[in-house]
Design goal:
The structure holds three protein chains of three kinds.
Chain A (H helix, E strand, L loop, with lengths): L1 H30 L4 H6 L11 H9 L2 H32 L5 H10 L9 H11 L5 H26 L3 H8 L4 H12 L1 H17 L2 H6 L8 H11 L4 H36 L1
Chain B lengths: L1 H33 L2 E4 L2 E5 L3 H8 L3 H35 L5 H9 L6 H11 L6 H8 L16 H13 L1 H12 L3 H9 L4 H12 L1 H17 L2 H7 L12 H10 L9 H33 L1
Antiparallel strand pairs in B: 1-2
Helix pairs in contact in B: 1-14, 2-3, 2-14, 3-7, 3-8, 3-11, 4-8, 5-12, 8-11, 9-10, 11-14, 13-14
Chain C lengths: L1 H16 L11 E7 L5 H14 L3 E7 L2 H13 L6 E4 L3 H7 L20 H5 L12 E13 H6 L8 H13 L3 E3 L6 H11 L1 H4 L1 H9 L8 H11 L14 H9 L3 E7 L2 H8 L5 E4 L12 E11 L6 H11 L2 H11 L13 H9 L3 E3 L1 H5 L7 H13 L5 H12 L10
Parallel strand pairs in C: 1-2, 1-3, 5-6, 8-9
Antiparallel strand pairs in C: 3-8, 4-6, 4-7, 4-8
Helix pairs in contact in C: 8-18, 11-19, 18-19
Classes of the chains: A mainly alpha, B mainly alpha, C alpha/beta.
């Protein structure tokens, strides 16, 4: 079998790529334990001593705990809305025939193409008029709205694949629409829900542009925004900076590693269905 | 019955449509409308029709900057397709062979995709620092000192370097998508082909690649959209001016610059910024639509 | 599933409602003060505490943003009608962009009598171009010089050069001895603009050229100016081999860690250098003229102002704070804590290097683009910065740079049209 002949070579290639992928992140993590001078003079090596004071500076002085809490609130709320509204819309678009179905679907899809950044000034004015400036809701609503296109795209696809007699059977039994949706349809698209959740989690958690414009109070800032304050305040205090970056990256990485199986399985299924 | 059904449709579709319309569609349309007005700094003045577009296309340096930025977006798209996506395809093929460690590799390869672009940009800017960065140090110690250039400071190499950094960060995503596509190819097709004596390359070319059409469609479209919307990485690494000497300037950066001014040197020109936004919008919509139709047709043909 | 969703939403609502939107209460007046000086937060907080003790009933919150995003945030806030009460503003063109639409409250010698004592030149940076009214209290003047490491100079028996040839000798000596002469780099365009502000004035004739060019009597194509730019090219061999990739932070690191002997920059570096390396023994000298014996020109400019938002609901309290920033007491604290050249007259500069800078600044000339050509887009700075990057990379000649700058500016600077 040709497989065993090529195996070592394949291993080598994959290993090299794995190293290229991991090395920068490992270096970032190691640097978090060094002093600034050490980082400049000895970038790759192990730290002279595993100092934790960079981390404590980030956690305490830089209010990292606070930023972390804010990031969690904003991200979780956004994801919940994306999944809830996206599933409802996907269900209707995928299983009901009505005039304008295709048009509405394309309408949502169009959102994938547009950088919402283009609308920043009108958005700001809108938030002001709604009284939502300097609140988390400004962020949550924008993130939720911008996550809908991909959610609708993925969920509609999944809903379409479910057998068509499923709901008609339930309806004949006298079940209400909402019950059908909640009890029968939704559980069947769970992998899609997971994909949508993870797919949106990363950009929402990592975003720094919108918090930048809409959040002014320090106690409301999210992690990426709090980190950018470092860029000025600690000027070139690379040591504290790396500690902060490492702490900022950790939650998403941890979550990803825990859920990677689900995610990959889900993404696999979704991609195939196109 | 009809009315009830219609009511339910409203319930299911309403929230999402409303949210999307209010917070995405409305601001973007407003922003586009801004291009038809005159601006004094950040205050809106009267209606000026297409005057901003005329200025954009005919005044120095805007016209040159626009073409320059657009061309850069094209380069980014081309390089990303050729480097990132081809490598991703290769990796996917290798991973599909279920060698030892496939699970591990799958998880690892996707890891950079979870990182914030601020982190990625900053990390690599430090690595590529010509004085302190490890890349040049490694190259020098390996005897390749001639390659130890200011990668991000040389206008000939800066854009390519940034594109490769971008590829590093995104590689895992198309890899996983392609892998999924390959895994979906029914085993009997592959068995049959191999039994007929087809070599690995033949199997790939004749069976796997055509059946990857849906995955390819997704990746090509997303790459296109990503390349033309490219903002965070150049912003973080090279700054809002797209330096050095505009060699990393792209359309989004130019928009941001015109809409908000450079750090403390340039001034805003919201009319021009909005005009750029309109152009970007038209470009993306047309090419995406045409591309989608074309790629879909190919999918159908090959399936 | 839905239950979980509901619980989630309710929790979120509860949590977010924890944060009140605006505290509209009786009690002390709350002023917000926005700035781009993230590095100076501690100092400002201390200074503000002094003001609050004097003025119970007024509280000021200093909120700094990263310089690269400050413009964005301020623009969007002002456009939406929700600006901070006290605003840290730039000077000249950077000020005009906010005063022209009427977002900043005009001041006068009546409302802020302390302004009468300020120098006229500094006040120029606080005026709106269109109406000539005063819009802020200047906070600092900046001067552009060459920093040098005294220890390294002493080791190689070098003294601050008095002529351009001497300067070249100093640079060459250092390079031959294996020391990096100049920390500067070209990755960030503005650092090259600073370099031109340090080197060029002695060659283009300082203020007389500035006056001529701002009056439109000559342009940047003038050989006097382009030959001054050409001098910058002579510095290239003495910067890092890959200097085009050296960014601002790296430049600073090189000088602070004593790997480079000199640093061409602004007086605003003093405080930072000291904070990063207490043992750094450094001083400054002005960029030398062609021949010894002439007093060299140094570029300087008003760095910015403190202004009041036109629509602030707390005008009285804001005015009180603004007047405080114009007092000598404020200026002294500012200079002492931040080692910057406060614009308030009569302030004693205790830092020896800062004192030296102020002595050099007696023959100051306006920093050309920042002072004279930032009124509209494209600004002189934007054009010059990318031009200089191309020039230092060997892609354009000084004449081409001059031509492009002039052509770009002619879009709004009428006197340059047809030149």
């Amino acid at each position: 079998m040709s497989r065993s002949r090529w195996s070592p070579l394949i291993q080598a290639v994959l290993l090299v790529n794995a190293v290229l992928v991991l090395a920068p992140m490992v270096i970032m993590g190691l640097s978090a334990f060094k002093t600034t001078q050490e980082i400049f003079q000895n970038p790759i090596g192990l730290p002279a001593s595993w100092r934790l004071d960079n981390f404590s500076r980030v956690w305490v002085q830089a209010h990292f705990a606070q930023y972390f809490r804010n990031s969690v609130v904003v991200t979780v709320a956004s994801i919940i809305i994306i999944v809830a509204f996206g599933a409802m819309a996907g269900y209707a678009l995928g299983r009901f025939r009505f005039k304008g179905n295709d048009l509405l679907y394309l309408y949502f899809l169009s959102g994938l193409m547009l950088p919402i950044r283009l609308g920043i000034i009108p958005l700001f004015i809108l938030m002001r008029d709604l009284g939502l400036l300097n609140t988390h809701w400004a962020l949550i609503l924008i993130y939720a709205a911008s996550g809908l296109p991909s959610a609708v795209f993925i969920l509609t696809g999944f809903f379409r694949t479910l057998p068509s007699d499923l709901d008609s059977a339930a309806r004949i039994d006298g079940a209400g629409e909402w019950l059908i949706f909640r009890r029968i349809m939704l559980p069947l698209v769970r992998p899609a829900v997971v994909i949508v959740a993870i797919y949106n989690f990363i950009p929402v958690w990592n975003d720094f542009f919108f918090p930048l414009v809409f959040i002014q109070s320090d106690r409301l800032k999210t992690v990426p925004l709090g980190m950018t304050a470092f860029f000025g305040q600690y000027y070139t205090d690379w040591a504290t900076l790396f500690a902060g970056l490492t702490l900022a990256a950790l939650p998403v990485i941890a979550l990803y590693v825990l859920l990677s199986q689900h995610f990959i399985r889900g993404l696999t299924a979704g991609a195939v269905k196109g | 019955m009809r009315a009830r059904r219609r009511l339910w449709l409203l319930v299911f579709l309403g929230p999402a449509t409303l949210l999307f319309a209010v917070f995405i569609t409305y601001p973007i349309l407003s922003s586009l409308a801004f291009s038809l007005y005159g601006w004094e700094g950040i205050a809106r003045r009267g209606f000026v029709g297409l005057h901003n577009f005329a200025r954009l296309f005919s005044t120095f340096p805007y016209s040159e900057l626009l073409v320059n930025a657009f061309w850069h977006n094209v380069i980014v798209f081309a390089v990303t397709m050729l480097v990132q996506n081809v490598i991703a395809l290769g990796l996917a093929v290798l991973l599909a062979r279920s060698v030892w460690g496939t699970q591990f590799y799958r998880v690892v390869f996707f890891l950079p995709v979870t990182l914030s672009l601020v982190i990625v940009g900053f990390l690599w800017a430090l690595f590529l620092n010509p004085v302190f960065g490890i890349v040049n140090k490694l190259l020098t110690s390996a005897g390749l000192a001639v390659l130890a250039r200011p990668w991000l400071g040389d206008s000939q190499t800066a854009l390519l370097t940034l594109t490769l950094i971008n590829a590093w960060r995104w590689l895992g995503f198309p890899t996983i998508v392609f892998l999924a596509g390959i895994n979906a190819v029914p085993d009997d097709y592959l068995e049959a082909a191999r039994l007929d004596g087809a070599g690995e390359w033949e199997v790939f070319r004749r069976i796997i690649f055509p059946l990857l059409a849906p995955a390819i469609t997704i990746i090509v479209l997303l790459t296109f959209i990503g390349s033309f919307n490219w903002f965070e990485l150049p912003y973080v690494v090279q700054g809002v001016s797209g330096g050095p000497n505009r060699s990393t300037d792209v359309l989004s950066l130019m928009f941001y610059r015109m809409a908000f001014g450079e750090v403390d040197t340039g001034l805003q020109d919201i009319g021009i910024g909005s005009a750029i936004a309109v152009l970007m919008f038209i470009l993306m919509v047309t090419v995406s639509a045409v591309g989608a139709v074309f790629l879909r047709r190919r999918e159908v043909e090959l399936a | 599933m839905i239950r979980r969703v509901l619980v989630g939403l309710v929790t979120v609502l509860l949590v977010t409602s924890f944060y009140p939107q605006t505290a509209s209460s009786q009690g002390p007046v709350q002023l917000t003060f926005w700035s781009w000086r993230v590095e100076d937060k501690e100092a400002y907080d201390r200074i503000i505490r002094v003001f609050e003790q004097r003025n119970p009933g007024i509280k000021v919150e200093f909120v700094p943003f990263r310089a690269t995003e400050y413009n964005t945030i301020l623009s969007t806030a002002l456009t939406a009608g929700k600006g901070p009460d006290i605003i840290h503003l730039r000077a000249y063109g950077g000020l005009e962009t906010f005063t022209a639409p009427g977002y900043i409250a005009p001041l006068s010698f009546e409302s802020v009598p302390e302004l009468r004592t300020f120098s006229r030149q500094i006040l120029e940076g606080a005026k709106g171009k269109k109406d000539g009214k005063l819009y802020g209290v200047p906070f600092a003047s900046q001067t552009l010089v060459i920093f040098y490491n005294k220890k390294i100079f002493a080791q190689h028996n070098l003294k601050p050069p008095k002529s351009w040839d001497e300067f070249m000798t100093v640079l060459k000596t250092l390079k031959d001895k294996g020391v990096l002469p100049l920390a500067n780099g070209g990755k960030e365009g503005w650092t090259l603009e600073v370099m031109s502000g340090v080197i060029a004035p002695n060659f283009y004739g300082g203020t007389s050229f500035f006056d001529a060019v701002t009056r439109g009597q000559t342009s940047f194509k003038d050989p006097v100016y382009t030959s001054a730019l050409r001098r910058m090219l002579e510095l290239r061999p003495y910067m890092h081999q890959n200097f085009m990739g050296v960014d601002y932070a790296t430049m600073q690191q090189l000088f602070i860690s004593e790997q480079a002997a000199m640093f061409v920059g602004g007086a605003f570096e003093i405080g930072f250098f000291r904070a990063q390396n207490k043992n750094l023994d450094f001083d400054v000298f002005a960029a030398p003229p062609l021949k010894a014996g002439q007093t060299p020109w140094v570029s300087s400019y008003a760095d910015g102002n403190y202004g009041i938002y036109a629509k602030t609901p707390h005008m009285d309290a804001a005015l009180k704070f603004i007047r405080f920033t114009a007092t000598r007491e404020f200026g002294q604290m500012f200079a002492d804590m931040l080692a910057q050249a406060s614009a308030v007259p009569g302030v004693q500069f205790k830092d020896p290097v800062l004192k030296h800078v102020m002595e050099l600044a007696r023959k100051s000339t306006p920093y050309v683009m920042l002072v004279g050509f930032r009124w509209q887009a494209p600004t002189g700075s934007t054009l010059l910065q990318s031009g200089l990057q191309a020039m230092m990379a060997g892609e354009k000649t000084p004449e081409q740079v001059g031509e492009e700058v002039t052509r770009g500016l002619s879009a709004w600077f009428e006197s340059f049209r047809g030149r």
